[in-house]
Specification:
This is Cbb3-type cytochrome c oxidase subunit. By secondary structure, the chain is mainly alpha-helical. The protein has twelve helices and four strands.
């Protein structure tokens, strides 16, 4: 095939190459390709002139704009440190002072939301409302106290966590361990349910409730108190407020009395800094359940 040969259909010149009867057209490069190549080359040249680009042994071309990425990083770190001055105030100020400062509390909400989501939400839920086996942190029903100091201590040492100063609590298995027979368990379950639902006392189970109170006074009052109000000294829940960790229906209460309970909360002293624990304390208080 001749190099000067033209394609009879398009009129394009041939390159002179032929493969198994297939002839190659000498098609010019599209103008769009030339355009973008030119723009790319121009951009690269301008970038080389304006920005740090070429290494020169121990230094490099600085560019006309004088941009220094290391200096930018140093300034960013310094600015972050200046902005985090609020953290020093949180570490130093008492809880009441921080809660009275709207600006600081906004920082607490921003940082606390991340801390809570990473460490607490898996059990207590993203909104802190808990679930079966996990306390609702917005309800004000505290096992070990809802003051800032009490919450901070619970976060620090945990519950049944193995921490040497940890809080320890256990609900005995009165039925499984045969401390009470089945009739006594049923009676005390009915009485306990009546503490948060007074309408039961005037219903057909009045005699059962009376019998259950006798069982309660002999076996439960030492922890939950004579009126069922609980005790933050030993982590015994209030049985009168209608807030239940494991459920307040008859069957759930029976399961608790019969089989016992022993919840677990990790100790965060070695996992979170003192500042992070204080932010978490303030965040939990801000959820609405602190007192």
């Amino acid at each position: 095939m001749s190099v000067g040969e033209h394609d009879p259909y398009t009129g394009q010149r041939m390159t002179g190459h032929e493969w198994n009867g297939i002839k190659e057209l000498n098609t010019p490069v599209p103008k769009a390709v030339w355009f973008f190549l030119s723009v790319t080359a121009l951009f690269a040249f301008v970038y080389w002139v304006l920005m740090p680009a070429w290494p020169l042994g121990v230094t490099y071309t600085k560019g006309l704009l004088g941009i220094d990425q290391r200096e930018i990083v140093r300034e960013s770190v310094a600015e972050a440190a200046r902005q985090r001055s609020w953290a020093q105030r949180i570490a130093q100020d008492d809880y009441a002072t921080i809660q009275a400062d709207a600006g600081l509390m906004q920082k607490v909400r921003e940082s606390g939301r991340a801390l809570f989501g990473d460490n607490c939400a898996v059990c207590h839920g993203t909104a802190g409302k808990g679930g079966p086996g996990y306390p609702n942190l917005t309800a004000g029903a505290w096992l070990w106290g809802g003051t800032p100091e009490a919450i901070a201590e619970t976060i620090r040492v945990g519950i049944n966590s193995g921490h040497p100063e940890g809080r320890i609590a256990q609900m005995l298995a009165f039925g499984r361990d045969q401390m009470l027979d089945r009739a006594a368990v049923l009676n005390v379950v009915t009485y306990v349910q009546s503490l948060s639902d007074p309408t039961l006392a005037s219903g057909p189970e009045k005699e059962v409730i009376v019998a259950g109170k006798e069982v309660y006074d002999a076996n439960c009052a030492s922890c939950h108190g004579p009126e069922g109000k609980g005790s933050t000294d030993v982590g015994a829940p209030d049985l009168t407020d209608g807030f239940w960790i494991y459920g307040g229906d008859r069957q759930s209460i029976f399961n608790t009395v019969y089989g016992g309970r022993q919840g677990h909360m990790p100790a965060w002293e070695t996992r979170l800094s003192e500042l992070d624990r204080k932010i978490l304390t303030l965040y939990v208080l801000d959820l609405g359940g602190g007192k």
